[in-house]
Amino acid sequence: MPERAITYAVVDAFTDEPFKGNTAAVCLLEESWEEQLDEQWMQSVAAEFNTSITAFLVRADADAANPQFHIRWFTPVRESELCGHGTLAAAHYLISSGLVKCNAIDFLAKSGFLTAKKVVGLKQSSTLISPLQEACTKFLIELDFPLIPVVKCSPLEMPSIPETLNGASVELNSSEEVVNVRPNISELVQSAGRGVAVTGPAPVGSSYDFFSRFFCPKYGLNEDPVCGSVHCALAAYWGKKLGKQCMTASMASPRSGTLYLQWDEAAQRVRIRGEAVTVMVGIILV
To answer: What backbone phi and psi angles, to 5 degrees, belong to 160?
Structure first.
C-alpha cells in the first residue's frame, strides 16, 4: 500500500456545542470504491479513533445530479449497517468545509440509498419547525432514512429483557425513568438484537415530545450517546402514540442531543434533522 495522507475530521452530531451530542470521525478516501482500503484497515482506524463511529467516504458518480459518496461506518469493534449520526457528521463536514458546494448529498451505503441536505433556519418547511429548532443559529442537516417497523411480539416471541431495565420492552413511564436507567452491561450483551432502546414521554410543557437512550455493547458502545438510526423506529412508534408526524426528540445520555423528526408513514421514510459542530481536523498517514 503506497504511503499517502488521508484527511479526517471529528464532528459532534445532533448538537450545536462542542463535546456534546455524538462524536463521529469522518475519513475522506480519495481512491475509487473498487480500490478501497481493506476492511481490516478501516476497522483498525476506527479502533484507533475509539469513538462511537468512524465514517469512510469515497467519491462516486461525478455526473450525478447531486454529489455522491460511498459510505461505510465502523464502531471500534465492528461495521455498522446503518448510522444516523455518522451520516449527519459526514454531510456537515463536506458542506461546512466547502468540499461540496451543493446543499444536497447522496450517500450509497450497503443498507441502501441515503440523502442528506442542508436546511437553514426559517427557510425550512413550517410543519417541521419546533421552538428549539427555530432557535438554531447554524444550518441543520436533514437525513432521509428508511423507516424501521416496530413489531409487537407475542409473549412467546418476546426476547429476554435485562432485569436492570425492569422488564421494559420499549417504553418507560416518564423521561425521569429514562434518565435514571442504569443497566447491567453484561446482561445487555446477552440480549437479542443489536442493542436495547428505552424511551419515555417528555414532561408536560417540555419542548420535547419524548426522551430515549440506546445501549449497544455488542458494537463496542455501552451507550450510544445520540443514535439517529434508532429513531427510524422510534419516530413511527411515538408518531402513532402521539398522533403526530413531526416531533422533537431528546437523547438523555450524559452527552445529550436533540433530533427533529418527520415520520412519513405512506412513504415508509423518516426525515431526521440535527445540527453538528466540527471540533477537529487532521491527517492520517498510511
So the answer is: -70, 135
Give how far Cα 135 sits from Cα of 120, 131, 284, Å: 11, 6, 36
Report the CATH fold assignment for 5-118+275-285: Diaminopimelate Epimerase; Chain A, domain 1 (3.10.310)
Contact 89, 276 (CB under 8 A): yes
- Could you give the C-alpha distances from 30 to 5, 109, 129, in angstroms and in order? 10, 17, 37
Cell numbers found for residue 234: 422510534
Give me 56's grid cell: 469512510
- The model carries a pTM of 0.87
Residue 76 in contact with residue 39, Cβ under 8 Å? no
Model pLDDT for residues 41-52, shown as the tens digit of each residue: 999 999 999 999
Find cell 423521561 and name the residue: 175
Across the strands, what pairs with 55?
Answer: 26, 73
Q: Span 253-260, mean pLDDT?
A: 97
CB 196 within 8 A of CB 188: yes
Please, are residues 206 and 131 in contact by the beta-carbon 8 Å criterion?
no
